[in-house]
Amino acid sequence: MTDSLFFDTDCISAFLWVGNESLLPKLYPGRIVIPAPVYAELSNPGIAHLKARVDAMVSAGQAEISDIMVETEEYEVFYKLTAELDKGRKLIGKGEAASIALAKKHDGIVASNNLRDIDDYIKEFQLQHMTTGDILIEACKRGFITEAEGNTIWAFMLAKRRRLGAASFSDFLRSKGCFFTKI
After folding, report:
1. Residue 162: other Cβ atoms inside 10 A
2. Tell me, what's the pLDDT at 134?
3. 16-19-21-23 Cα dihedral, nearest 10 degrees
4. DSSP character for 7?
5. Total Cβ atoms within 10 A of residue 122
6. Domains of the chain as residue ranges with CATH
7. What is the rounded CA–CA span in Å between residue 121 and residue 170?
8. Which ranges of the chain does DSSP label H, i.e. alpha helix?
């Protein structure tokens, strides 16, 4: 699973809500992992259409669901991040914690937009990290989308109340020092 992307609920949902999850297997074939707690969060009856999209990705071999087994290294990390009150350590959501625990165990990449909650743990465990914006930049660099298409996707994500850190994809690109030639 080296270099697999372990998605938390917010990051995978950004693509699912706007019907652009097809970008993910193009960019990361065989590397998309949905932790079981994230899948459980997507199983809420009110958002059954999101779970159906993940199920379609799994059925097509584009993503896999990964469990965290009790009495494993990843379970210990997951438990400490979600339930064990250590002095100075803040508890985080199960989706974020599962993504971190599995990425740590499998030398993977955490895919999450929730920097406020996870940044300390990304640093502590020396993990690689990507946001929705980083994924869209990669899609643009590889020619899967244009900057204009990225702006449209971004606007749809914002309309679905996704927190992306910029008013537009173009603004996000500029904040990262990325500039694409207009054709």
Report:
1. 18
2. 95
3. -150
4. E
5. 17
6. 5-130 (3.40.50.1010), 133-175 (no CATH)
7. 29
8. 9-17, 23-27, 36-42, 48-59, 73-82, 94-106, 115-124, 132-141, 147-159, 169-175
If you search the block for the tokens 């992307």, which residue do you land on?
Answer: 5
d(CA 22, CA 85): 39
At 39, list the tokens. 């899948």
Angle at 155 between CA 154 and CA 156, to 5 degrees: 90
**Chunked in runs of 10, what are the mean pLDDT values of the chain (183 residues)?**
86 95 96 97 92 97 96 93 78 94 96 91 95 95 94 93 89 84 53
* Predicted local distance difference test score (pLDDT) of residue 181: 57
Separation of alpha carbons 50 and 113, rounded Å: 18
> Angle at CA 56, nearest 5°, toward 54 and 62?
80
Among the listed residues 180, 118, 109, 176, the one whose alpha carbon sits nearest the alpha carbon of residue 149: 180
pTM of the complete model:
0.91
Taking the C-alpha atoms of residue 107 and residue 104, their distance in angstroms, rounded to an integer, is 5
Q: CA-CA distance, 145 to 131, in Å (whole number)?
A: 17
